[in-house]
Design a protein that fits this description.
This protein is α/β, with parallel strands linked by helices. The protein has 9 helices and 7 strands, in the order E-H-E-H-E-H-E-H-E-H-E-H-H-E-H-H. Helix 1 crosses helix 7 and helix 3 packs parallel to helix 4. The structure holds NADP nicotinamide-adenine-dinucleotide phosphate (NAP). The site of NADP nicotinamide-adenine-dinucleotide phosphate has 29 residues, from helix 1 and helix 6.
């Protein structure tokens, strides 16, 4: 059975992807750590939309999590035609003072799990000459962000990696799209112990998903969700890096107090 696998589907943007794609009759495999939320969401989507929705409770930072997930999908005869690498989190603070274990877990989740799952599921997509991979990156990927140093760097990796893999797989009729949301109304800031640049102008996860799916349809390798985010990203790439980093640092430095 062909399925769409979504990581980080228990809340926020991942959950919005699950709801929207269930409406579009995709069969789903939902992955996250929160078993109850995944269980309830699968039951609801199966009942509402007459699809198959399977969940896997898994911490993607665990050793060999990608192998476990791949074995689980193989065991059930699921053919992953769409892969949505969405699970991720951030942190905020002076890098030297942040918890190292948590920073490394972020690298494991935002980068290693995404790379491993892409590598696991690509060969079958190539065989079938069909597939979609959506990697949820961020507008944070377009510049260094002092006080969110590791997070921004992980997302810079995701955007760069996705654009390269998109080009490699174009001849195989596989669309790879990096989706770059700006601040979005999800659990992200609570989970990341962070505060947004501004409380105004947050997008809904549904708007991010709608933009992502439009980009996939147009086979775009990169999409920035929201016009303000788009303008911010473009300005950030035009201005000298040292200036952008200084300005962003000056905006975020006082926010560290707000966070405490
Ligand atoms: N919200 C924003 O402002 C924003 C902006 C730009 C980019 N993004 C990106 O959007 C993506 C989704 O985040 P969100 O905003 O929707 O935040 P969210 O509501 O906190 O969702 C994060 C999801 O990732 C899952 N997750 C976290 N750690 C995990 C782990 N170790 N193993 C497996 N699953 C894990 C969470 O589920 P469990 O806790 O149940 O495991 C949850 O389903 C992330 O990659 C984030 O970087 C968000």
């Amino acid at each position: 059975m062909k399925v769409t696998l979504i990581t980080g589907a228990s809340s926020g943007i991942g959950e919005a992807f699950a709801r929207r794609l269930a409406e579009e009759k995709h069969n789903l495999v939902l992955v996250a750590r929160s078993e109850t939320k995944l269980h309830e969401l699968c039951d609801e989507l199966m009942l509402q939309h007459g699809i198959i929705a399977h969940y896997v409770t898994l911490d993607l930072t665990e050793f060999e999590a990608d192998t476990k997930l791949f074995e689980e999908t193989e065991k059930h005869g699921f053919e992953v035609e769409w892969l949505i690498n969405n699970a991720g989190f951030g942190s905020m603070g002076d890098f030297a003072e942040l918890d190292l274990e948590r920073e490394l877990q972020m690298v494991d989740l935002n980068i290693s799990a995404l790379v491993a799952l892409t590598h696991r599921y690509l060969p079958k997509m190539r065989e079938q000459k069909k597939g979609v991979i959506i990697n949820v990156s961020s507008t944070a990927s377009f510049q260094a962000i002092p006080f969110m140093a590791t997070y921004a760097a992980t997302k810079a990796f995701v955007t760069s990696f996705s654009e390269a893999v998109a080009e490699e797989n174009r001849p195989f009729n596989i669309t790879v799209t990096a989706v770059c949301p700006g601040p979005t109304e999800t659990n992200f800031f609570a989970a990341s112990k962070a505060v947004p640049f501004s409380a105004k102008g947050m997008q809904t996860p549904e708007a991010v998903v709608a933009k992502a799916l439009k980009a996939v349809k147009a086979k775009k390798p990169l999409v920035i969700s929201g016009i303000t985010n788009y303008i911010g990203a473009v300005l950030g790439t035009i201005a000298p890096d040292s200036l952008v980093t200084r300005v962003v640092g000056n905006v975020l430095r006082p926010k560290l107090k707000e966070k405490k």
